[in-house]
Amino acid sequence: MFVKYVLLKIQLVIFKKKWRKLNRHNRTIAGNIFNPNLVSVGNFTYGTLSVVDFKEENTGLKIGNFCSIAKGVEFLLGGEHDYKNISTYPFKRFLVDDFTTVESFSRGPIIIEDDVWLGRNVLVLSGVTIGQGAIVGAGSIVRKSIPPYSIYIGDRVVKKRFTENTCKKLEKLNWNRVEKGEILSNLDSIYNFKEDHIERNFFTKYIEE
Fold this sequence. Notes:
Layout: H1 2-22, E1 27-30, E2 39-41, E3 46-52, E4 61-63, E5 68-69, E6 74-76, H2 91-95, E7 110-112, E8 117-118, E9 123-124, E10 129-130, E11 135-136, E12 141-142, E13 150-153, E14 156-160, H3 164-170, H4 180-185, H5 187-191
Parallel strand pairs: 1-3, 2-4, 3-6, 4-7, 5-8, 6-9, 7-10, 8-11, 9-12, 11-13
Antiparallel strand pairs: 13-14
């Protein structure tokens, strides 16, 4: 048992190094071993990735640029049970000797768009899209898609970050084009954002109509 534990730890250390080598464009860390072909992360995003994969079809995790992922966030790529049957128990998996596939299923890939902040201990379920600029409060369970620039707490959207008009403008902001040098040259503009003077913010140059 101890030898198996040590081997798993060694495998995790090796995988973490492999993940960092593949993701020098961001600051994410692998919290567990997962299929790297199922997960993609954009520029400058940071945080520990805890990805639970059930080896099902139609799964995956795509995370955008400049996302903030707090400690304890978990991405559940599947594991759904069919509640419309008389029982949700996986009878074939545990009672049929020659059954080798999985009974659970995924509702589809998880998509985290640019500039999303996931608070501590958030659980994200399969098949959801978290829109650009959204904030998900600590301990929330994301079981349905979240519109861009929304604040989601618990299991629902509680408000928008800005007015509808401003949100629509910011949704057109192309974070793929934002470069480190320009950010460092415009920190005052970033940290002193005023919604009623959005046209003065340097980010407006990245808004694509």
